[in-house]
Amino acid sequence: MRPVLIYIMLVLGIPVFSQNVNQLIGKGNEAYRQQQYDKAVTAYRKALQAEPRNRAAFFNLGNALFKNKEYEEAAGVFREAAELADDSKWKSRLLYNQGVALTWQKSLEESIAAYKQALRLNPSDTLARENLQRALNEQQQQQRKEDQNQKKEHQEDHPRQQPGKVLNKQQVEQLLKALEEQEKKLHDRKMKKAPASGQPEKDW
């Protein structure tokens, strides 16, 4: 699969939230930078428990899950965060990241829908446009492959005897058996017409 970029911004909490939430997000960001994604996920989840609508914790949690190759869960977090987002540009980034996570779990139809939504909110998003095109191309290739497989299966279920086609073992055996029977019948007819042995024809 071609690499698709994800928007990664380790966002700090907004100061109006409690100091504890900001500390947890900061802790998660530090773990994320050190590629300790499990620890980052734990910290962001704790921040969300303390402040369920914290968009920084949501965004960073989705990214940490994605980096940890938990694509399905990451897509769910991005979707949930997008539903809560009230800023169109922010929502567009969340939908784009959702599309990337869905692409990585081979949910092409859903990823295409997410990219389209992201582009409706931010038509100038070149990454969303490029990834949408890639996802559409991959979907077309899959469809062609499925069509070819169905055609092949249909041909196997309904084989046609083509001229000059090599016969299989069973067909050869049937053909030989039929020829033997014809030969036997021909031999029997000749034997009936031939004179009985030991009895010469009368010459007088």
Fold and architecture overview:
With 204 residues, the chain is mainly alpha-helical. It has a domain at 19-143: Alpha Horseshoe (Serine Threonine Protein Phosphatase 5, Tetratricopeptide repeat). Helix content is 71%, strand content 0%. It has 8 helices and no strands. The chain has helices spanning 19-33, 37-50, 55-67, 71-84, 88-104, 108-121, 126-157, 169-193. Helix 4 runs antiparallel to helix 5. The longest helix has 32 residues, at 126-157. The termini are far apart. Residues 13-17 and 196-204 have low confidence and may be disordered.
What order do the helices and strands follow? HHHHHHHH
CATH architecture of the domain at 19-143: Alpha Horseshoe
Radius of gyration, rounded?
37 Å
Q: What is the percentage of strand-forming residues?
A: under 5%
CATH homology superfamily name of the domain at 19-143: Tetratricopeptide repeat domain
List the helices and strands and how they pair.
Elements: H1 19-33, H2 37-50, H3 55-67, H4 71-84, H5 88-104, H6 108-121, H7 126-157, H8 169-193
Helix pairs in contact: 1-2, 1-3, 2-3, 3-4, 4-5, 5-6, 6-7
